[in-house]
From TrEMBL:
CDD domains: SET_SpSet7-like. SUPFAM superfamilies: SET domain. Transmembrane segments: none annotated. Residues 17-132 form the SET domain. This is SET domain-containing protein.
Length: 161
């Protein structure tokens, strides 16, 4: 017989009305197949916390790095530093949008991330989170902003060629 302590059991809420689409302009993405009401828990994902060195020496130099989240990590000297964690499951498939419709929360005690609908999400819409202001890729949603300086740069470049 297996004994599981009540306090170590964590409910894995999960929204079933989702599909993964493989060919969006952002790569793979998660879309709603039915209307999802605001505040619905979309998913609860377990995480693997990386050691500070493990991240800086290894993972940072791989494509996995683009899937990691900032996560507070205890360093060798006992101090808390901002490290990285790998999120298992759907959590790693949410793309970025500045007008995100999904919010996320770290549970550092249980090593989980909970994703929740920030507003009503209609069927057919992509579920996106915000990655914050510093992106490591070109945001396909971002409008090209034309300034006079850009025009001058372009002119100078053309003249030099
Ligand atoms: C955590 S993954 C998300 C899943 C990814 N689309 C896939 O197919 O595996 C993060 C990567 O998705 C892409 N991505 C996410 N949001 C994007 C956006 N707004 N514009 C362009 N690419 C995006 C970038 O390549 C980024 O490095």
């Amino acid at each position: 017989m297996v004994y599981i302590l009540e306090e170590s059991r964590i409910l894995l809420d999960r929204c079933a009305d989702l599909v993964i689409v493989s060919n969006t302009p952002k790569g793979r993405g998660i879309f709603a197949t039915k209307d999802i009401p605001a505040k619905t828990i979309v998913d609860v994902c377990p995480v693997l916390v990386l050691g500070i060195e493990e991240n800086t020496e290894h993972v940072r130099h791989t494509s996995l790095y683009h899937y990691t989240y900032n996560w507070p990590v205890k360093d060798k000297d006992g101090s808390i530093k901002m490290g990285q964690a790998v999120i298992f499951g759907l959590g790693s498939m949410f793309n970025h949008a500045i007008d995100q419709n999904v919010g996320w929360e770290r549970d550092t005690k249980h090593l989980l991330v909970t994703y929740k609908a920030l507003r009503d999400i209609p069927a057919g819409e992509e579920l996106c989170i915000s990655y914050g202001p510093r992106l490591t890729f070109k945001d396909v949603d971002a409008a090209e902003v034309y300034t006079e300086e850009d025009g001058l740069d372009q002119l100078n470049r053309i003249q030099l060629e």
